[in-house]
Design a protein that fits this description.
Blueprint lengths: L3 H42 L1 H12 E6 L6 E2 L5 E13 L7 H12 L3 H10 L4 E4 L4 H10 L4 E10 L7 H4 L1 E2 L5 E3 H5 L1 H5 L3 E7 L5 E3 L13 E4 L3 H18 L3 E7 L6 E7 L18 H4 L1 E2 L6 H10 L9 E2 L4 E4 L2 E4 L6 E2 L1 H7 L2 H11 L1 H10 L24 H8 L6 E2 H12 L3 E3 L4 E5 L5 E4 L4 E4 L3 H12 L19 E11 L4 E14 L6 E8 L7 H4 L1 H14 L10 H6 L4 E2 L17 H6 L6 E3 L8 H10 L3 E6 L2 E6 L5 E3 L3 E7 L3
Parallel strand pairs: 2-10, 28-31
Antiparallel strand pairs: 1-8, 2-3, 3-4, 3-5, 6-7, 8-9, 10-20, 11-12, 11-25, 13-18, 14-17, 15-16, 17-26, 19-22, 20-21, 23-24, 24-25, 27-30, 29-31
Helix pairs in contact: 3-4, 3-5, 9-19, 11-13, 11-14, 11-17, 12-17, 13-15
Length: 673
């Protein structure tokens, strides 16, 4: 028979178990509710904060730099381009021996071992070995087989023309940003708009792109087209380099400008540098002197003083000035000419470059009008080439007589080479000053024109009549008897002006014995297509612009006329050229002063006119022996004055000049080599 007492015990255990289950269920339900509440709190109320923290651990926005835009010359020849190259990095924590690895890497990429070792020692997980490495350096590093090496593509600026136009184009730094020249001036346009794309960061902190590389065309900078002509730039740099080398000078500048449009066809500097390897260049060789630096231009300014005086009717082409036989005292100062001269008209002043008579022309013009004339020609104002650091030059108001005199021949004032070329461009362009410019247009990758320059007239400086008169006078500078016969060309008429300026000494607050030699010319003179300026800084072998700078002008002009397909000038007979030389009339006695007869420019007029009583024509004695020349001059009732020995190489006044009887004729003699 069953025991009923013992049968009730399981009922009591069942109730306890149920209670425990209920308690556990309640506990778990509470925990689940708490977890759910926490999840709701985190997902709803803390969502943005937690998402940011999570993304900060593994998601990164990767900057994709735009491919830098190209720079071209006027005919589409690339002057600056960007290419993709490898940059090398390493994770120092993965290197078994940092010092040994640093030495191996330094040898492979041609860097200093101590420098590489220092960089690797400072870094924990990332260090650059070399950015923008050469292909052979990349292969050498890969051959080392070191752990932790990485390679990434970066854009590198490449200059396919090397030194050609380097001062204008400029250069960029390792980070791809412009440092000099147009690379700096057009940094925003050339660099383009950088892109950003999402990516992951792996366990080692390396950035991984998740969408692949973007189309390079979608991240490319704008293209810049210049007015420079690669061929003329090459010719200008070559001729300038030869002139600087021959003269043993410290530097040089050359400008080729189209006077009809203001376009700069060439802008050369010497010494040169290669922007691909700027560290190999000469110190201070990077500076674009032709566009940025101001200097005292010297006698090249005389043409503008004469032009302003003619425009203001302060003088006429036939007005005579006495040049004091080479020395003219103004207060405590004495102005000197290179050679003594007597009476000269405007053409003669330019032909022989008389400082004394230029000062007298400035005196006739007046202080206010001379300064206003300089400003009208564009001096003391920036040309607007868009180059950082362009000088504007200085034209101080000449308060004293000596300041007025010195500024008339380009001392005591400053100008840039581009300003000077543009001013001669105004004379060549029938008196209209054009704005010089260097950048033709800037176009973005979509073909949208961001900037476009067109020929722009700034103002009329002088009348067409005066401009053509002055250009005609400047033709006498390059004939025999002028200061620059070495600039004369066989097939083209040339007009120009020499300059030889003293350099200021900022320490001694005066002028040193150093010089700046220059020649500014236009060709062909009857309808100029090019204005060419050559400046040689501190020449040693010779200091005169007619000997130092004029030959370089001729070389550039010869190439420019052929390249621009300019037809030769009309044939000019040698006698006509000689007759075009400026009149040089020795100072007559006071009683005979009123009888001084200015020489006419045209040979035909001179031949047909009847000489007045008491006057005589100067015979042509060039090429004759000194004794024969003396006899011929005495027979013509003229007084010969000889300089040197041998055969006559030049005579003053020139052959055919109408002078008073008994006038002195200076003969320069030299032994034929």
């Amino acid at each position: 028979m069953r025991d009923l007492k013992s049968a009730r015990i399981p009922e009591s255990n069942t109730k306890g178990l149920r209670l425990r289950v209920q308690l556990l269920f309640g506990l778990f339900l509470a925990l689940l509710g708490t977890a759910f509440g926490r999840a709701v709190y985190l997902q709803v109320f803390q969502q943005e904060k937690l998402r940011g923290l999570a993304q900060d651990q593994y998601v990164r926005q990767i900057d994709i730099p735009a491919r830098r835009g190209d720079i071209f010359d006027r005919r589409g020849t690339p002057l600056a381009q960007s290419v993709e190259v490898d940059s090398i990095w390493v994770d120092p924590s993965m290197l078994p021996n940092v010092q040994q690895a640093a030495r191996q890497l330094a040898r492979a990429v041609h860097l200093d071992g101590n420098d590489v070792a220092a960089r690797l020692s400072r870094a924990k997980r990332f260090a650059w070995v070399k950015r923008q490495a050469k292909p052979q350096e990349v292969e050498a590093v890969k051959a080392l087989g070191l752990p932790g090496l990485g390679f990434t593509k970066e854009p590198k600026r490449f200059y396919p023309q090397r030194e050609l136009g380097a001062h204008i184009v400029g250069m960029v730094g390792t980070d791809g940003h412009g440092l000099e020249g147009l690379e700096l001036a057009f940094e925003d346009e050339l660099s383009g708009q950088n892109s950003r794309t999402p990516g992951f960061r792996d366990a080692k902190g390396r950035k991984l792109m998740v969408q692949g590389a973007m189309d390079p065309l979608e991240r490319q900078g704008a293209a810049v087209t210049l007015t420079l002509d690669r061929h003329l730039q090459y010719v200008a740099e070559k001729a300038l380099a030869k002139a600087v080398e021959d003269a043993k000078a410290v530097a040089g500048m050359a400008v080729v400008l189209d006077p009809r449009t203001g376009e700069l066809l060439a802008l050369a500097n010497n010494p040169r540098f290669n922007p691909n390897t700027p560290e190999d260049g000469v110190k201070n060789a990077i500076r674009n002197r032709a566009a940025l630096d101001a200097f005292e231009p010297g006698s090249t300014m005389k043409a503008f003083v004469v032009a302003a005086a003619l425009e203001q009717k302060a003088i006429t082409p036939d007005t005579l000035f006495f040049c004091e036989n080479g020395a003219f005292r103004i207060g405590r100062h004495t102005i000197n000419d290179t050679h003594p001269h007597g009476w000269l008209n405007a053409q003669g002043i330019l032909q022989v470059s008389s400082n004394i008579c230029a000062a007298k022309v400035a005196e006739a013009l007046g202080r206010e009008k001379m300064v206003a004339g300089y400003h009208a020609f564009g001096f003391a104002e920036r040309t607007g080439l868009a180059l950082t650091g362009e000088s504007r030059g200085v034209i101080p108001f000449p308060k004293s007589d000596i300041s007025l005199a010195t500024q008339s021949f380009g001392q005591g004032m400053t100008s840039t080479a581009v300003q000077l070329a543009a001013a001669y461009g105004a004379l060549a362009n029938d008196g209209v000053l054009m704005r010089p410019y260097l950048v033709s247009k800037v176009v973005d990758p979509d073909g949208v024109v961001l900037l476009e320059n067109q020929p722009t007239e700034l103002r009329r400086v002088v009348s067409q009549r005066v401009a053509r008169q002055v250009v005609g006078m400047l033709e006498s500078v390059v004939v025999k008897g002028g200061t620059a016969p070495k600039a004369a060309m066989d097939d083209y008429r040339v007009a120009g002006k020499t300059g030889t300026a003293q350099k200021a000494d900022p320490v001694a607050r005066g002028y040193s014995d150093k010089r700046i030699a220059s020649f500014a010319g236009m060709v062909p003179a009857e309808a100029p297509r090019a204005v060419i300026l050559v400046v040689v800084d501190e020449p040693k072998t010779d200091v005169y612009g007619g000997n130092v700078a004029a030959p370089a002008f001729k070389e550039i002009a010869t190439a420019a006329m052929a390249h621009l397909a300019v037809p030769p000038s009309r044939t000019v007979a040698p006698a006509e050229v000689a007759a075009a030389a400026a009149p040089v009339v020795p100072p007559p006695a006071p009683k005979a002063l009123a009888k001084a007869v200015p020489v006419r420019a045209g040979l035909e007029d001179a031949v047909t006119e009847t000489p007045e009583p008491g006057t005589v024509r100067v015979p042509d004695v060039q090429g004759q022996a000194g004794r024969e020349a003396v006899v011929k001059l005495l027979a013509a009732a003229l007084e010969p004055q000889l300089q040197g020995s041998g055969q006559v190489v030049s005579q003053t006044p020139p052959a055919g000049a109408l002078v008073e009887k008994g006038a002195r004729v200076t003969l320069e003699l030299a032994t034929r080599q």
